Structures are given as structure tokens and as C-alpha cells.
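can u do me a favor
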């Protein structure tokens, strides 16, 4: 399996191109702010042909390059219906103080072909199987993409802004909810096998086993059980 990832734009959002191998079809995950050039470079380097863009959620730092990427390769974008509006209205999604400064440099909108993600569905794209889990908390329509173990590659979780190495996503944007975040962590993350690799992990990849042992938020969720309160992190964009 080939996973080509790079941080894009001012926020360093992780964009991934995933394929069974070099020279084959691929899926693009979260082409965010200023990611289009990096996507094209990775496609050329690994001789990949994209068949779809899939989005963990609708914030502009994850979707800003969807229109040019989808348009250049005539591929659909998949997003949860709760977050679909964010592609056309990032100001509403992030709040006026963050949205307004961006409007001068971004061309927002939907690509020509938008498909909606459903909880539990298995997407079979580019010879890959991605299991969608609706995981609200960071946004109402946040999802994760899980991939099963293949040969010597352990199971993978593309977590969006649900889980990071040592932390979890923030919940103070419009549509964020700490209660939903806790429920998503308990339902989506805790049942996973310890060997599952979590992407992104900020500056490093991590595993569910490592996070179960060291992530203070995940440890509190596991120890306290459903309905427990965990203080959410507050990070600047």
C-alpha cells in the first residue's frame, strides 16, 4: 500500500493520497488550504490516478482545494451531509472572526459531483475499502475512515480532527460539542484494536494502543465511561 501525505497551507493540514501501490488509482483525503499543488506533485511522483476525494469534515482548512482538485481530475467529493454546507459557507462554519479574513483569498463552493457519506458504509474506491464512522464533536458531520489490515500493513484510522497523538479535536467552533466528542471517542475509537495506526498524529503517527495508554482525554473517557466530563483542549487555528 502507498500512503503519500503532506502538510498543506498555513494550518499545516494533513492531506493524504492512498493507493494499493504506485502507478495505480488513488483516493485523496482532505485536500485543504493550498493543497492543490502538493496533490499534483504527489500524483506525478507516484504515477497515481485519483478516483475520488473523501473529506473527514467540512472546515475550510480541510476542503479549500476540493473544487480545483475535483475539477482537474473530474472526480467526486464525498462528505457527510451535516457538513456539506461548509464548502460553500466557511464563514458560517468557523465563525465570523475566522471566516472573514479568509474570504479575500479563497474561491469557495462545491465541486460538480458531491456524494454524501453515511455512517457504517464501506466505500470501495481505487481497490481500497474505507469504512465510514460518523464521529460528531469537532463538527456535526465529522467522520473517520477506517481501513482493515492488509498484508503487512496494520489497520488504519484516518481520524480527521477527532483524535491526535496525545490530544483530541477542539469543540469550540460552531457545531462543536464536547458531549458528542466524548460519545464518538467511546463508540468509534475505544473499540479499535491496539495495533490500529492513527493518521494524522500531528508531527508523528500514533496507534490506538499508545493513545489508550498515554492520551489523557482517551484515558479519562475509558476510565469514566459514558456521560463523563472531560475538559476539551483549546487550540488556535
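np, heres the sequence
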Amino acid at each position: 500500500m502507498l500512503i503519500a501525505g503532506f502538510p498543506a497551507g498555513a494550518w499545516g493540514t494533513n492531506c493524504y493520497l492512498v493507493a494499493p501501490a504506485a502507478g495505480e488509482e488513488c483516493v485523496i483525503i482532505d485536500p485543504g488550504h493550498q493543497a492543490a499543488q502538493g496533490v499534483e506533485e504527489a500524483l506525478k511522483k507516484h504515477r497515481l490516478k485519483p478516483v475520488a476525494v473523501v473529506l473527514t469534515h467540512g472546515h475550510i482548512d480541510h476542503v479549500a482545494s476540493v473544487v480545483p482538485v475535483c475539477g482537474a481530475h473530474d472526480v467526486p467529493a464525498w462528505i457527510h451531509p451535516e457538513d456539506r454546507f461548509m464548502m460553500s459557507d466557511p464563514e458560517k462554519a468557523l465563525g465570523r472572526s475566522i471566516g472573514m479574513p479568509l474570504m479575500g483569498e479563497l474561491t469557495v463552493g462545491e465541486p460538480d459531483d458531491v456524494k454524501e457519506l453515511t455512517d457504517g458504509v464501506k466505500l470501495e474506491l481505487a481497490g481500497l475499502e474505507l469504512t465510514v464512522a460518523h464521529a460528531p464533536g469537532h463538527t456535526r458531520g465529522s467522520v473517520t475512515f477506517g481501513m482493515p489490515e492488509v498484508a503487512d500493513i496494520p489497520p488504519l484510522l484516518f481520524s480527521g480532527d477527532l483524535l491526535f497523538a496525545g490530544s483530541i479535536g477542539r469543540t469550540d467552533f460552531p457545531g462543536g460539542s464536547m458531549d458528542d466528542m466524548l460519545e464518538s471517542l467511546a463508540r468509534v475509537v475505544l473499540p479499535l484494536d491496539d495495533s490500529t495506526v492513527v493518521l494524522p498524529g500531528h508531527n508523528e503517527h500514533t496507534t490506538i494502543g499508545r493513545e489508550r495508554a498515554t492520551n489523557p482525554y482517551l484515558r479519562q473517557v475509558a476510565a469514566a465511561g459514558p456521560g463523563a466530563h472531560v475538559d476539551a483542549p483549546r487550540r488556535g487555528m
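Residues 1 and 46 are 12 Å apart (CA to CA). hope that helps!!
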